# Entry
Amino acid sequence: MGETISLQEIIKIIKKRLVLIIALTVIGCAVAAGISFYAITPIYEAQTQLLVNQKGNADQVYSMQSTDTDLRLINTYQVIITSPVILTPVLESLDLDLTTGQLAEKISVSSKTGSKVVNIRVEDPIPGRAVDISNTVAEVFKENIPKLMSMDNISILSSAKLSENPSPVKPNKLMNIAIGAVIGVMLGIGLTFLVEFLDMSIKSERDVEDYLELPVIGMVDLIKEENQKRFSLNPRKARRG
# Structure
């Protein structure tokens, strides 16, 4: 037996269980807010920028060849920055109780295509430590790159600084609450239709037709309460009539 449901019936079902949907939405928002504000550790970010540029004499002419060399080296530099040869001195300098692998997970290195600027981003639960790691990585890299690559083309463009009121980059509380609301609405609607379709009680003539596959040829309406009282108080009068 095939069953179809119209848009009007869908709206009617949702209206019928609207309180349930709203309740689950509120619960979803509350759970997401609780996790975001109290369960997840805030993460702060610090960024230091390096400039990759060939150094030469004052009368040296700027050439496309040197620019191309710098750009090709950036990919190599990105790998070197997160290597143990750079991170080990950083750990020793800051006296961090971390392995080079754990420290590397906090660091991301990036650069835009065609740009000589390399961005070193560090994420850490402690904002001051994020700043220290970012700046120290840049300093150690700048000091060691001439020995590693026999080139001196690194300068620090901008250092990371600790603001008076640092704001965490993670978690995104508003986004998490919005996700919690969406999940709550989805659960509410899903549970609404599940309860509705599991309810096998007969409520209308259409239900009779659907379940028995027989046409309805007549209906007995409900007797109003006032008529019911009249018949029960005057049974003889009712029979005479």
